[in-house]
Amino acid sequence: MKLNHINLVVANVEKTTQFFETYFGFKCIDVKGDYIVTVLKGEDGFTLVIMKNREGSPVYPEAFHIGFMLDTQEQVNEIYQRLKAGGIVGEQEPRKIRDSFGFYFSFEDLMIEVGYYY
After folding, report:
1. In what order do the strands lie in the sheet with 110-117?
2. Parallel, antiparallel or unpaired: strands 27-32 and 100-107
3. What is the CB neighbour count within 10 angstroms for residue 96?
4. Which of 20, 46, 61, 98 is the most buried (most CB within 10 A)?
5. How many other CB atoms are there within 10 angstroms of residue 22's CB atom?
6. Do domains 1-54 and 64-118 have the same CATH topology?
7. What are the 10-residue block averages of pLDDT along the chain, 118 residues in total?
8. Residue 71, pLDDT score
9. Is 67 helix (H, G, I), strand (E, B) or coil?
């Protein structure tokens, strides 16, 4: 069985779409309405749907996050530096976390993990 897609509810669909295109290599393949919904494809074919929350800002459970797995520690450091240059992440640099090397950060209403797993 293969996971087909995930739908993330956010307050600002256009900004979130641009974020995933700029930093994670997704390509927007469809925009519905005035950025009410966007459909993005990842380099591996994964579909990410970004949807505007009709009630304002979404509320995810406290530990809810999405994670991106990279092949090397160098790749983790590279994306961290790009995010830092873009003003997205703060000063908490990638580090060893259990059986991985990575970092967590928040963007809009989402918590995101980027890591390399040993």
Report:
1. 66-70, 110-117, 100-107, 95-97
2. unpaired
3. 10
4. 20
5. 13
6. yes
7. 92 96 97 96 95 82 93 97 93 91 93 95
8. 96
9. strand
State residue 109's pLDDT score. 83
Token output for 83 = 């995010």
CATH class of 64-118: alpha beta
CATH architecture of the domain with residue range 1-54: Roll (3.10)
pTM of this structure: 0.90
- Domain edges within the chain: 1-54, 64-118
Q: For the chain, give me the number of helices (H) and strands (E)?
A: 2, 8
Distances (CA, A) of 91 to 66, 80, 96, 117: 20, 10, 15, 22
What CA–CA distance (Å, rounded) separates 19 from 23?
6
Which residues, in sequence order, are CB contacts of 1 under 8 Å at separation 6+?
none
